[in-house]
Write a structure and sequence with these properties.
The chain is α/β, with parallel strands linked by helices and 380 residues long. Helices cover 46% and strands 15% of the residues. Strands 4-3-2-1-5-6-7 form a seven-stranded parallel sheet, sandwiched between helices. It has a four-stranded mixed sheet with strand order 9-8-10-11, covered by helices on one side. Helix 3 links the parallel strand 3 and strand 4. The model has no long low-confidence stretch (mean pLDDT 96). Bound molecules: magnesium ion.
């Protein structure tokens, strides 16, 4: 179990839940970072009394510094501030809950400082999976996934020996539009896309869940985290979100992890691992569980998942280009500037137009990321 944590991205959905879990389990919050939501950040800073807070936005950082001038909190800003929070000597674990490729550099810095990484930033593995996993192995930094599916797989693999895994069964609810045809999704509004049936999440990831791009990003992440090939991962649609993912072992045994759909659970495990602690979350009530059902993913009407699986096979910067293009397109959709089905068009267009190359340096990865963003900004 960890003693003190740095939360990168503390004002987002995962960041706020992490702070609550830390409070419940008695884990000290040593550092917080946020982009620019300084009102909430100040509230959190006064409550958790971290020694260091970084505000990514330089202007917001100045305002924040004035706001907490009566406290002993040190304030940093920009990428430098994020990296300082990620490498703070007094924290033994860094929760990477920032969204987007801004999380890459601080995560690599935290790995080099041999912190436990409670990984909630998708771009880290989607864009730089090979590099991140290799560096973590080299220095001996632990990576414990926070995403519910990867946490489930991680738990199912605890105590398993090398060579026992046959395949990963990555489950997903299918999102709010499961069963619909692509043509019927043309006029979907942001409000409809962010209303997820089972999980309460931020707007961007909710849209990704509805297009199944989120499952696609998780597919790429699972490949890196568990050192498997795309052929070793099967996506299984399970609308009730009670099973959070499964593994099939070589003898045909399937092990599943079940629980209520609450992100607090995988967050808590990432902090208490390898221990288990009582939690504040609801427990499963089997008398109230409806039938658990399973179906094949609909790749034809939800082409984002097929695209992500293709990009996973291509490797290199292909998943990064796809993910960056998707991110810009989703934000355009949320602002009402782009139709729902155009999100896929933007992602596939970026992969075809920007192309992909070997992801052998952070500079190459960040350049691909930027090229994909520019492509969508200019063409959609
Ligand atoms: Mg997930």
């Amino acid at each position: 179990m960890v003693n003190a944590i740095s939360i990168l991205g503390c004002t987002g959905s995962i960041g706020r839940q992490t702070a609550a879990v830390a409070e419940h389990t008695g884990i000290r919050v040593a550092a917080l970072t946020a982009n620019r939501k300084i009102d909430l950040l100040e509230e959190q800073a006064r409550r958790f009394k971290p020694e260091f807070v970084a505000v990514y936005d330089e202007e917001a950082a100045k305002l924040f510094k004035v706001a907490v001038a009566d406290t002993a909190i040190r304030v940093g800003s920009g990428m430098e501030g994020l990296i300082e929070a990620a490498t703070l000597a007094s924290a033994d674990c860094v929760v990477t809950a920032v969204s987007g490729s801004v999380g890459l550099k601080p995560t690599l810095a935290a790995i080099d400082a041999r912190k436990r990484i409670a990984l909630a930033n998708k771009e880290t593995l989607v864009c730089a999976g090979d590099m991140v996993m290799a560096r973590a192995a080299e220095v001996g930094a632990e990576i414990v996934p926070v995403d519910s599916e990867h946490s489930a797989i991680f738990q199912c693999l605890m105590g398993r020996g090398e060579g026992e895994l046959h395949k990963i069964l990555l489950t997903g609810s299918g999102g709010p539009f499961r069963g619909r045809k692509r043509e019927a999704l043309e006029d979907i509004t942001p409000a409809q896309a962010v209303a997820h049936p089972n999980w309460s999440m931020g707007a961007k990831i909710s849209v990704d869940s509805s297009t199944l791009m989120n499952k696609g990003l998780e597919f790429v992440e699972a490949m890196h985290l568990f050192h498997v090939t795309p052929d070793d991962i099967q996506v299984v649609i399970h609308p009730q979100s009670v099973i959070h993912s499964m593994v099939e072992l070589v003898d045909g045994t399937v092990i599943a992890q079940l629980g209520v759909p609450d992100m607090g659970l995988p967050i808590q495990l990432a902090l208490t691992y390898p221990e288990r602690r009582p939690s504040l979350f609801e427990h499963l009530d089997f008398w109230k569980l409806r039938d658990l059902s399973f179906e094949e993913p609909d790749l034809e009407n939800f082409p984002c998942l097929a695209l992500a699986m293709d990009c996973a096979r291509r490797g290199g910067t292909a998943p990064c280009v796809m993910s960056a293009a998707n991110e810009v397109a989703v934000h355009k959709f949320l602002r009402g500037e782009l139709g729902y089905n155009r999100i896929y068009d933007a992602a596939v267009g970026a992969v075809e137009t920007v192309g992909w190359t070997k992801a052998d340096s952070l500079e190459t990865i960040l350049a691909s990321d930027e090229a994909a963003r520019a492509y969508v900004r200019e063409n959609f």
